[in-house]
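Dear Dr. L.,

I hope this message finds you well. Following up on our conversation about the binding site, I have prepared a predicted three-dimensional model of the protein together with heme C. For your records, I am including the exact sequence and ligand specification that went into the calculation, followed by the structure tokens. Please feel free to forward this to your student if that is useful.
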Amino acid sequence: MVGLALLLLAAQDFAGSRSCAVCHSEIARTQAGTHHAQALGRTRDRRWAFGAGAQAVTYVSQASEDTYVEHGLSWYKKSGKLALTPGHTTPDGVTYQTFAADSNILRCFQCHSTGKLRLTPARAIEPGQPGVRCETCHGPGADHAAKPQRGNIRNPARLSAVEVNDLCGQCHRMPPARGEATNFENPWNVRHQPVYFSQSACFLKSEGKLSCLSCHNPHEDTKPLGDAKCAECHAKPRHTTAIAGNACVTCHMPVVNPSPLLGFVNHWIGVYRLTGPRAKLLRPIQQRTRR
Ligand code: HEC
Ligand code: HEC
Ligand code: HEC
Ligand code: HEC
Ligand code: HEC
Ligand code: HEC
Ligand code: HEC
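The resulting structure of the complex is given below.
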């Protein structure tokens, strides 16, 4: 469904978020302030800055007509300082051929911007619009902006929970296909929320009632999740463990640190062993109690 919709919409043109703001001013105002909207920017010396700074910013710049360099030092919010970019072993940076089949650079821009990528005469990459804006989730909207009505723009409110995983999974990474092996032991993979979420009993056994949109407003940044959300389905969870004073998510969606400077919530909602090495937080332990 989502795949087909994307294909059909791909033939249309992008209008840009400024055009949407004319009529949807309130959504446009809140969305503009999100980390999504700021996922790509430029520094004063014209480097590209990937990441809104919620956790980190990585710098990228064109090095020659055919190459881009991902800088070796990134800025981290936790330390307030520069340190090695994830995956790098020296501060020298890594050079990518812009158009090599395995080029990561075009892909960086794809996930951190909206609309079609263009090339300048000097073969510099120009995103349609920097950041994750309206039309990444709603599809190209020129037709709708010219003739606004329901039905000529995608409203993801009508997608199923599985389809929402795929929509967000375009960038947050797709849930594994049936039979596909996933390395759940690698702490770097915890930041792929749809992958982990797709494994949890809450998602699998709630008949499509729990999706990314149950806990996240798509036009705002995340807020701490109150226990009321869990209580919608778990009015009286059975505990032998003392839980008073702790939010449900502290224990059941624990934060995993792939490096001392980064942390991601484990979206595989489950029962975790909360003592011992952090690696124990990658997969739930077998459930000790059953309803
Ligand atoms: C000229 C005004 C106008 C512009 C520009 C505009 N919209 Fe709309 N939009 C509307 C109206 C009117 C509706 C229908 C509201 C209704 O009937 O409840 C609508 C509905 C929608 C819906 C819900 C559709 C549905 O089927 O439920 C979405 C999503 C949407 N707009 C997104 C966008 C996006 C994204 C842009 C920019 C690409 C945009 N709009 C630009 C006026 C506009
Ligand atoms: C076009 C790619 C793309 C799509 C599609 C996308 N995201 Fe994101 N998302 C990002 C990027 C990039 C960031 C990192 C922003 C930053 O730099 O902090 C992000 C960050 C987030 C955050 C963290 C915001 C915060 O508070 O810091 C949430 C929550 C999120 N996305 C949820 C979603 C959901 C839910 C969907 C589907 C409805 C979705 N995203 C679709 C690319 C995308
Ligand atoms: C498949 C889509 C995708 C690609 C390709 C991609 N990113 Fe991201 N990026 C994301 C998403 C989604 C997030 C939000 C992750 C999160 O916080 O959960 C993100 C977050 C980030 C952040 C903020 C720190 C963090 O981890 O939250 C930085 C910096 C970043 N990306 C840089 C890059 C660079 C540089 C490249 C290319 C080498 C790149 N990204 C390629 C989707 C992508
Ligand atoms: C990360 C994905 C994402 C981005 C970016 C995004 N939206 Fe949405 N939008 C959604 C989802 C998901 C829904 C359905 C929300 C729901 O019903 O829970 C939605 C709903 C809407 C609706 C219908 C609201 C209603 O009450 O019927 C409008 C209008 C809309 N978005 C406009 C915009 C505009 C304008 C922007 C850019 C400023 C934007 N969206 C950016 C995902 C997104
Ligand atoms: C839409 C309903 C729904 C919501 C909301 C929900 N869950 Fe669940 N959850 C379920 C269902 C259904 C099961 C499976 C129960 C079973 O197997 O009998 C489950 C199972 C669990 C389990 C057992 C894990 C396992 O592997 O069997 C835990 C722990 C849990 N949920 C915690 C939470 C927490 C914490 C929240 C809030 C962050 C939450 N749930 C939100 C429906 C939900
Ligand atoms: C049961 C509730 C729940 C669901 C469902 C859920 N999330 Fe989250 N998510 C959270 C909580 C809680 C946080 C941490 C918020 C905080 O305290 O800042 C979070 C954080 C995030 C972040 C910030 C980076 C991180 O991992 O900590 C992103 C991105 C994100 N979620 C994306 C998604 C996507 C995409 C989906 C659907 C596949 C999804 N979430 C489904 C509760 C949920
Ligand atoms: C201090 C950590 C902690 C907190 C806080 C916590 N839990 Fe649990 N939870 C556990 C552990 C450990 C188990 C396994 C059973 C046991 O030993 O108590 C469990 C089991 C569960 C189960 C599976 C048992 C069942 O009834 O099916 C659910 C559902 C659950 N918790 C939901 C919640 C909800 C909802 C909240 C918030 C009100 C919450 N938990 C708060 C640690 C915690």
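In brief: Residues 157-281 form one domain.

With kind regards,
A. P.
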